[in-house]
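Proteins fold reproducibly. Take a sample protein:
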Amino acid sequence: MHEDQQFLETVVKSLVDHPDSVKIDRTVDEMGVLLTLDVHAEDMGKIIGRSGNTAKAIRTLLRVVGMKHDARVNLKINEPEGGRVMTADTTEETMDDNAGAEVSAEPKDLDQAIDDLKI
């Protein structure tokens, strides 16, 4: 197993609850190395992280590992089967949650925003 693939496997397996479901494919072409990651559906959030920060950090570390070997390393994270899909039902639920929110084109100043937060 290549060093970049071994590194990714070690990092990902330490983050997830289902390490046996981790699968990494490695392909090399003229663009460099592409590591394709598959994880259990329940572990996607752990790999992506809040606002994608965990995935971003893993990609940065992989680039560093790649630079050590004069290779460009990229990571693709596959959406697992049964992953979250935005359907009409979930879209409506999201819209219903925001139904009471006041939408204003005018930005609020700090005092107005604090007043809005008071219950």
About this structure: The first helix runs from residue 3 to 15. Residues 85-96 have pLDDT under 50 and may be disordered. The beta strands are 23-29, 32-38, 73-77. Helices lie at 3-15, 44-48, 53-68, 88-97, 110-117.
